[in-house]
Write a structure and sequence with these properties.
This protein is an alpha/beta fold. It is built from ten helices and 15 strands.
Length: 334
């Protein structure tokens, strides 16, 4: 089969399509002929050599995919050859075929194309497992999402609104690269349901949050920025607020004044998805199918795909992702 290979740690130019061996499935796995895969920021970190795949996982990039099942292991009962599915992966999506534990496979939601279904697994499982399963975000509460126009952000806005949450987002444009400016990004977030859009380039998000909540602050924050936003995130939280950190784009080392946490009864949480056990991922995937898929079927959560590239243009797709000028997801097709 063909797969995108990281020929050496480095920039997008190190990505090359090569002929590689087909994956061999285990008894609890299925083999998927890949229709599409979606880019995630973690792919760029792996390409640079700073985010290796979990032991025993595919060495190739790609944390989600959609496609058709070509083979099933002897212990797999739910899925059969020919089923159209999407899946959460530990790696291997940038290829023509990928093996995946059966518990990490989802049916393609009715009304969603097989190609576009690749945009859902990673964002759905990340958002659901963090702010809902762990932070217990509930109807009537308020949520602040940093990077509202990202793949994670565009999904989080929609599912939070579906569940009766008031949603705040930050978004902006860091440079003159690309076509999606700050106002365009904020408008896209508003169209998806965001109640309050904050341009992080020109506004203080702490002040805006306090203004919009009569000084109270928000209940939950989903943050992929890390160091640069840490103190301001704590300042933006209401009493009993929860900060969930899923990334450290600005850095990973910071200082914490415990008095702020104590006085406001704050909870600070953090988690990744890739290094969880297959059993843990299967629990998350089951919850996503039960709680998120109905919202997609009802048309309340939609795919947000910015651009599609062939597998041979993976380097160009990575260049686009790293400009952060896109809105939603970027897909690759074998």
């Amino acid at each position: 089969m063909k797969a995108v290979v990281v020929t050496a740690p480095g920039g997008p130019e190190v990505l090359q399509v090569q002929e590689v061996e087909d994956p061999q499935i285990k008894s609890d796995e299925v083999l998927i002929k890949v229709e599409a895969t979606a880019l995630n920021r973690a792919d760029t970190f792996q390409r640079k050599g700073v985010y290796p795949p979990p032991p025993g996982s595919s060495q190739y990039l790609g944390l989600e995919c959609s496609g058709t099942i070509e083979a099933v292991g002897e212990h797999v009962s739910r899925w059969k050859v020919g089923d159209q599915v999407c899946a959460l992966l530990s790696g291997g999506g940038y290829a023509e075929k990928v093996d995946v534990p059966a518990g990490q496979v989802l049916p393609v939601p009715p009304g969603i194309s097989l190609k576009d279904a690749a945009s859902f697994p990673e964002v759905a499982c990340t958002v659901w497992s963090t702010i809902f399963m762990m932070s217990r975000l509930s109807s009537g509460e308020t949520l602040l999402v940093h990077g509202g126009s990202s793949g994670i952000g565009t999904f989080a806005i929609q599912i939070a609104k579906y569940r009766g949450v008031r949603v705040f987002v930050t978004a902006g444009k860091d440079s003159d690269l690309g076509s999606s400016g700050s106002e365009e990004k904020l408008a896209a977030c508003k169209e998806l349901g965001a109640d309050v859009g904050i341009n992080y380039r020109t506004e203080d998000f702490v002040a805006r949050v306090k203004e919009e909540t009569s000084g109270k602050g928000v209940d939950v924050i989903l943050d992929s920025i890390g160091q640069a936003y840490f103190k301001r995130n704590l300042d933006s939280l209401a009493f009993d607020g929860r900060l969930f950190v899923i990334g450290t784009l600005s850095g990973s080392v910071t200082e914490l004044d415990l008095r702020v946490v104590l006085s406001k009864r704050l909870t600070i949480q953090a988690a990744g998805l890739r290094y969880r056990s297959p059993e843990n991922k299967a629990v998350i995937v089951r919850e996503v199918e039960e709680n998120v898929w109905p919202a997609i079927v009802a048309g309340k959560v939609k795919t947000v795909v910015y651009k599609r590239f062939p597998l041979s243009k993976a380097a160009e797709a990575h260049q686009l992702l790293e400009t952060s000028q896109h809105i939603g997801k970027i897909l690759l097709f074998p």
